[in-house]
Amino acid sequence: MKKEITISELARLMKVSVHQIRYFEDKGVLPPAFIDDNQYRKYGLEEIYRLAHILLLRKLGVSVPTIKECFTSFGSVQYEELLERSLHDTASEIARLQELQRHTLHILEEHRSFAASKGRCMLKQRAGVHLLRWLELGQHDTLHAALLVAQPRQVPELFEADIHYIRDDRGRVGLYIESEQPADLELPTGSYLSIQTLASDEEELELPIQLLQDYAAEHALVACGPLVVVEKSYLSLFTPDQLHYELLLPVACLLERA
What DSSP element (H or E) covers 166? Predict the structure, then answer.
């Protein structure tokens, strides 16, 4: 009974393509055991193990040239270091994917929440949020691309998070992003009157703002803080021609205040 197998048998056994095996041979990491009289490549048990090691190293992200170096000069210490590096890289990739999963779930939840409540005033209980000022607009300023680039504080993953617009007593509008640590401003824990809407420009926000104010008056709610306009630009994946906004007004019941 023959002890060696052909390249196609090796490929089938190891679940790779013949092309891959030829590539590894061309790079000098997987020569055949011998070539028979008919010019067929033959592979034995040693080559099977060698191919298994190559595939493991490739799975760990090791390049083929480095694999050749591994086979010629690596000892147990170098292999242990290689595996430790691979473990660290894998942990980093897992963390990246988990963050991507959380972000994707957040977008889906926000989209479904918007679809369920669009255009309706709702009273919400919200946890406190720390806000970091990103830029400030004067009364007659408009937001434009050059202004974003000119900001000394660059925001990572811009527009993948909520941007809070808050007007101060001087009529200036601050643009804020959420912060894990205490920063420039805090939206306190409490009751907020909310309405979610779509808009192509600032003027289209006037109607939902009026609806919010009318609802507050009708239900004996008094504002106890500034109106907050929250831009959720990531939701514009679903409506490319319009931006998604949530208007938040911190409120208290008149009876509570009395």
Answer: strand 163-167
Q: Could you give the 3-state DSSP secondary structure of residue 224?
A: coil
Threshold 0.85, pTM exceeds: no
Q: Which two tokens stand for residue 34?
A: 């011998």
Q: What is the pLDDT of residue 207?
A: 95
Integer Cα distance of 11 and 26 in angstroms: 16
So what's the pLDDT on residue 258? 43
End-to-end CA distance of the chain: 98
Question: Would you state the pLDDT for residue 157?
Answer: 80
Question: Strand locations in 12-71, DSSP E?
Answer: 34-35, 41-43
Give 186-201 pLDDT, tens digit per residue: 999 999 999 999 999 8
Please, which residues bridge with residue 221 across strands? Answer: 253
Q: According to the model, what pLDDT value does residue 254 have? A: 59
Q: Which residues of the chain have pLDDT under 50?
A: 257-258
* CATH topology for the 118-257 domain: Multidrug-efflux Transporter 1 Regulator Bmrr; Chain A (3.20.80)
Structure-block tokens of residue 176 = 């804020």
User: For domain 5-74, which CATH number applies: 3.80.30.20, 1.20.1080.10, 1.10.1660.10, 3.40.50.720?
Assistant: 1.10.1660.10
| Token pair recorded at residue 185 | 């401003």
CA distance 250 to 185: 14
